[in-house]
Write a structure and sequence with these properties.
It contains 7 helices and 2 strands, in the order H-H-H-H-E-E-H-H-H. By secondary structure, it is mainly α. It has a two-stranded antiparallel sheet with strand order 1-2.
């Protein structure tokens, strides 16, 4: 029987790190009047890199119902406005209001400073290695064509 590893499993370490970094980012965004969820929605809307409300949810990585909850709150707070697409009444079009643009600017400043804080202890080479390593880990858990075929049988 092989000896147990000296370090905790990589998945556990990654999950803990993601939780801690996410909580720290959310705390900083909250101090500026936002949240991670609000920042993600504002960022995508500001960049206009979305289509339908469903595509926006997929881009963020949340379910449509969860996005609806966030958009309802953001609409109440005057950050976004929604209306039906005149060409397809089933589609909700979401846009930023002037207040949403102002909050985007504040949260962008916080997010950029947070990113600098995370990058500070790492060299350019280490950042490149980290990015590559994270991409390889993500690819290792991506469903394969074989997995998809197996789930259909």
């Amino acid at each position: 029987m092989p000896a147990p590893p000296l370090l905790p499993p990589i998945g556990l370490r990654l999950a803990r790190t993601a939780r801690d970094v996410g909580a720290a980012l959310d705390a900083e965004l909250a101090a500026a009047g936002g949240s991670t969820a609000t920042w993600q929605v504002l960022l995508l809307l500001h960049a206009e890199r979305w289509g339908t409300q469903r595509q926006l949810a997929e881009a963020i990585g949340i379910r449509g119902a969860t996005l609806t909850h966030h958009l309802n709150r953001m609409e109440r707070d005057g950050l976004v406005e929604r209306h039906r697409d005149p060409d397809n009444r089933r589609v909700q079009v979401v846009g930023l209001t002037a207040e949403g643009e102002r909050l985007f600017g504040r949260l962008r400043t916080v997010a950029l400073a947070f990113d600098e804080r995370l990058r500070a202890p790492l060299s350019d080479e280490e950042l490149s290695q980290l990015a590559g390593g994270l991409e390889r880990l993500r690819a290792a858990v991506e469903p394969t064509e074989h997995d998809a075929a197996g789930s259909r049988s």
